[in-house]
Design brief:
Number of strands: 5
Largest sheet: 5 strands, mixed
CATH class of the largest domain: Alpha Beta
Radius of gyration: 19 Å
Structural class: alpha/beta
Shape: elongated
Helix content: 40-55%
Strand order of the largest sheet: 1-3-2-4-5
Order of helices and strands: HEHEHEHEEH
CATH topology of the largest domain: Glutaredoxin
Low-confidence stretches: none
Distance between the termini: 65 Å
CATH superfamily of the largest domain: Glutaredoxin
Number of domains: 2
């Protein structure tokens, strides 16, 4: 019985160490460079930028861990999507007017626009395949 308890204790300690390590790595993710095709939107250029064409806009904040997870995914989407859509980002801490206008209450929120009108909205981390499929479904 003592051997079983020791094994269970060691397994629990190893699992706890793994979880703590993953949390620490997530908190210390450095900023990932944005793909050159990703456009940074501000309160001043938001409406004018999205008025013509298809845009996937990521509402994010620097302190948001899921937003950090989305950064490399959006880079991949920007690389693969070509001219079908433009990938854009809005830092809600710096530019809150657009987030307020579109009722963004949690982040990351990604809104798909066509010719200035919202056509779909996604909250939380989404994978590349899902986002590309949503963009390709825009008529």
């Amino acid at each position: 019985m003592n051997t079983t308890m020791i094994i269970i204790g060691l397994a629990m300690a190893a699992f706890a160490a793994f979880v703590i390590n993953r949390i620490w790595k997530m908190k210390n993710l450095s900023g990932i460079a944005e793909h050159e095709k990703i456009v940074t939107l501000t309160d001043q250029n938001f409406q004018n930028t999205i008025k013509s064409g298809v845009f996937l806009v990521d509402f994010w904040a620097a302190w948001c861990m899921p937003c950090k997870v989305m950064a490399p995914i959006l880079n991949e989407v920007a690389e693969e999507i070509g001219d079908k859509a433009q990938i854009c980002k809005v830092n809600i801490e710096q530019f809150s007017a657009a987030a307020n206008q579109y009722n963004v209450r949690s982040i990351p929120t990604l809104i798909l626009f066509k010719n200035g009108k919202e056509i779909n909205r996604f909250t939380g981390v989404k994978d590349k395949t899902f986002l590309i499929k949503q963009i390709n479904n825009v008529k």
